[in-house]
Every structure is written in C-alpha cells, then in structure tokens.
Amino acid sequence: KEVSCLLFLGLESMIKALIIVSMNGQPRLSKFYDYIDMDKRKDIIRKIYDVVVKRSDKLCNFVEEKSLQFWNEPTKVVYRKVSSIYVCIVADESESELGLLDLIQVLMDILDESFDGLREYDLIYNIDKVHSMFDEVIMGGLVLETNVDKIMATINAKNSLEYKMEDSSGRLPTVKWLEEKKKKKKKKKKKKKKKK
What we know:
Blueprint lengths: L4 H4 L6 E8 L4 E6 L5 H17 L7 E2 L11 E8 L2 E8 L4 H19 L4 H6 L1 H9 L2 E2 L2 E2 L4 H18 L9 H21 L1
C-alpha cells in the first residue's frame, strides 16, 4: 500500500477528496488526498453523486450521512451546484462548512478567470491545467492559499513560462529539443565571432 507523505510526517489531510461531477453523473475531476483503491474511488464518486443530486435546493449544502463514511474518521461532504456541475469536497468533521463553501468559491473563481466563464468542456479538454491550478490551492489535502489574486499571479507566471518554453509547434520542449536549441545558439555565436 502507498502511504501519504503527510501521514509519514505525522500530519493528516483535512480534505479527503475534491470531486467535480456533471449533472448526469459523469466525473469531470477527482482528486483523492489519501490512498484509496480505484474501484473504491468510483464507488465513492457514485454514492456522493447519488446523495447530492437528490437533495432539494432548499436544503443546506452539507451532508453528514453514514452511507458516505468511507474513511476511518468521520467525514462530511460539502457541495455546491455551479452551472452544469456539482463541486464536492469531502473533509474531516472538524472543518468549517462555511470555510469549505468559501474554498469551493475560490476554486470556481480561478476557473472562471482562467477560462473566461466556467463551462463543462473546459474541465474535459484542459484537465491537466485544472489539476495544476487546483494544486496551487490544495496540496496533500491541506489548503495552501485562498487569495485568488495571489493564486492567479502564480498560475499566470507558470503559463507565461510555459509559453516562453514552447517550440514553434505549440508543444512544451523536450530535453532533446532544449539541447538542439543550445547547439544552434553556440553555432550562431561562432559565426558572429568569425565575422568579426
């Protein structure tokens, strides 16, 4: 079995999972911060979706049911419906429900700023970028930053660095490509020296 680095350090993750599911139950993003077998992950996502989708809009956005207890310690699900998706956070029971709702809002603000409005297909076609953006907020089940401006500054810095590093085909460089680029620069320098 894999063991989380946080457990090795004596820290337990406060957030157990971040799950984004479409209105028809299709998982669009799932991040589990504790090791859980893949089949059990699918079961967790399905059960959370089944509970959340049946709840009335008039009910609160917090669920603490025995059917949703998949971890050793008691957990709760905090969710929010945003356009055509459900954003769910599974956290230990000591976490503030309003704090988790605010965290969901931070995540949605980041997506909104990054993609000029949140659409489900942005999650599908940019899943690696979304994972990277969410890693700026939550790492190993611990919240790192909630200031949207600071998070977006970091994300924009990463994006500009990636853009500078891209080759003409739009792909990120490989080690081979970087070595070829260095060789070309050396050849240009030698030609300049010969001309002088």
